[in-house]
Amino acid sequence: MSKKRIVVCGGSGFLGTRICKVAVGRGWDVTSISRSGEPVWSSVTSSPTAPPWSTSVSWQKADILKPATYTAFLKDADAVVHSMGILLEADYKGVLTGKESIWSGLSRAFSASKGGSQNPLERKEGEELRPQEKDGQLTYELMNRDSAITLAQEASFQHVPSFVYISAAAGTPILPKRYITTKREAESTIASSLPNLRSIFIRPGFLYDSSRTFTLPIAFAGSAGSMVNSMVGGRLTAIAGAAVEKPLKADLVAEAVVEAIEDNGVNGVVGTQQMEDLANVAWRRGML
After folding, report:
1. How many Cβ atoms sit within 10 Å of the Cβ of residue 129?
2. Around Cβ 16, how many Cβ atoms within 10 Å?
3. First to last CA, the chain
4. Does position 60 have pLDDT exceeding 80, yes or no?
5. Which CA distances in Å does 3 have to 30, 53, 181?
6. Other C-beta atoms lying within 10 Å of the C-beta of residue 79
7. Do the beta carbons of residue 242 and residue 172 sit within 8 Å?
8. In 3D, which of 260, 256, 262, 257 has the Cα closest to residue 279?
9. Per-residue pLDDT band at 178 (split at 50, 70, 90)
10. In a 10 Å sphere around its CB, with 0-12 CB exposed, 13-18 middle and 19+ buried, how is residue 223 labelled?
11. d(Cα 89, Cα 109) in Å, to the nearest integer?
């Protein structure tokens, strides 16, 4: 098994740190890119202390909206991972601080569309993204869609062969529809506009881990919902979305991501069952 070099954008996050850990376990050269550099370990694990494997990762600070801050790290990489989407937008902050009226904040939060950046595909190489919202808000369009397209494009400029986008299985009734539509737009644009990349779109449902105890009852409820949905032939998916998708342990998804990079036959959308299959392959590999 050849040693690979991967770059994880968002490597200091909940899933990103686990992807880094699995890749280090395979002896790969791993670089993490995020605004913070090294993670705040208490926010992603059960301990505030850095784990031993973390010394094998190059924790770099960069801004996903400013490619010039990270393109040097993409050179000679075998794969680049985008794990930097957002679940919630921050309209409420302006309301709470008095900078925006309640009506205006609610209107923005549930608007049918918001600004992202300029068209990422029309940028010059290395050109930064310019947020289109008046206050520079980090919108779904900007973070879930445009930053991913831009990272994939910059990876293609550097002749990186594989790109992994952490997407989602579906939306949920409690989130604006734009959360999932922007992810699907990113997938579609990357697949159609950057054909030289082997693009892998990971679509998990809810992720849980014992280090985040609040995720465990949510995962339990999600598992029950998934079983009921299976019994009715998946008819609840159209109503409840990811709420009835089988929850997955974050470590399993990380294993699946790294195994997908390893297996050149993996391409396109990777759903729950294929993630479980890939993680099983990784487990068997580790037993050899």
Report:
1. 21
2. 26
3. 13
4. yes
5. 10, 17, 36
6. 25
7. yes
8. 256
9. very high
10. middle
11. 7
Residue type, 25: G
Higher pLDDT pick, 101 / 232: 232
Q: What is the DSSP code string of 157-203?
A: HTT-SEEEEE--S---TTS-THHHHHHHHHHHHHHHH-TTSEEEEE-
Q: What DSSP assignment string belongs to 79-145?
A: EEEE----SS--HHHHHHTTSS-HHHHHHHHT-S-----S-GGGSPTTPPP---STT----HIIIII
Structure tokens of 182?
Answer: 């922007």
Q: Which two tokens stand for residue 11?
A: 């490597």
**What pLDDT digit, counting tens, does each position of 112-127 carry?**
778 899 999 999 999 9
Bridge-partner residues for 82, per DSSP?
A: 9, 165
Confidence check: pLDDT of 82 > 90:
yes
For residues 30 and 218, give the distance between their C-alpha atoms in angstroms, rounded to a whole number: 32
| 6 φ, ψ (degrees, to nearest 5) | -125, 155
Could you tell me the pLDDT band of residue 103, with boundaries at 50, 70 and 90? Answer: low
Spatial contact of 19 and 57, defined as CB atoms under 8 Å apart: no
Q: How far apart are CA 222 and CA 224, in angstroms?
A: 5
29 Cα distance to chain centroid? 20
At residue 174, the pLDDT reads 85
Length of the chain: 288
Cβ atoms of 141 and 131 closer than 8 Å: no
Instruction: Give the separation between CA 139 and CA 178, rounded to whole angstroms.
Output: 9
